[in-house]
Specification:
rod-shaped; mainly alpha; 0% strand
């Protein structure tokens, strides 16, 4: 997945320009030539394709005429075998690099997806944190209301106890008053009897 619009054409043009200037078209050099943009994995994949598209050039080297034909033939055979081995190694390295570039791009995509998931989780965490703080504040408010109600209940119970004591005292006073009234009634009845007796004696005289 090419990023920021970096295509194979861009990479090839940058690599050709570097070669023309006598520089090696490395990933870093190509990326700098492109303005420090593009994924290194994407640039690597396009460089592999660019190298495969270039014709293999082998500098021809003249052997000294003093060497014998046998030495020349042996050198030619060894050179051909070395070229074949080097080309096989280059092909294998390019294939491995292409695989690594593909894996790298996949990992970059997974990294971006994971980063988005982390951001979403952080947002959800912040939302839940706000809700938890609101719930905790509500719990504290309810606890305060319960404490206030408990204090009011205790005060009412104390007031009720005082009122009950006052009622009991009034009942005791009323009982004593009733007993006093009964005693006074008896005393009055006796006084009336004595007064009637005295009146009778006075009338008899």
């Amino acid at each position: 997945m090419a990023r920021l619009g970096i295509s194979a054409t861009h990479v090839a043009a940058a690599a050709d320009a570097l070669l023309a200037e006598g520089q090696q078209p490395t990933i870093r050099a190509v990326r700098e030539r492109l303005g420090d943009t593009g994924s290194p994995n994407t640039i690597q994949r396009h460089l592999v394709a660019w190298r495969k598209a270039r014709p293999a050039t082998v500098a021809a080297q003249e052997l000294p005429q003093a060497l014998t034909a046998a030495i020349a033939a042996e050198l030619a055979r060894a050179s051909s075998a070395a070229r074949e081995q080097a080309q096989a190694e280059i092909d294998q390295a390019q294939a491995e690099a292409a695989d690594l570039a593909t894996v790298g791009e996949t990992l970059e995509a997974e990294r971006d997806e994971l980063a988005a998931q982390v951001q979403a989780l952080r947002s959800e965490r912040d939302t839940l944190t706000g809700r938890i703080e609101a719930i905790q504040a509500e719990i504290e408010r309810v606890r305060g209301a319960i404490d206030t109600a408990r204090e009011q209940t205790q005060a009412a119970q104390q007031a009720a106890a005082v009122a009950q004591a006052q009622v009991q005292a009034m009942q005791e006073r009323a009982t004593r008053a009733e007993a006093l009234v009964a005693q006074l009634t008896q005393d009055l009845a006796k006084a009336q009897q004595e007064a009637a007796h005295l009146r009778g004696r006075l009338d008899a005289k």
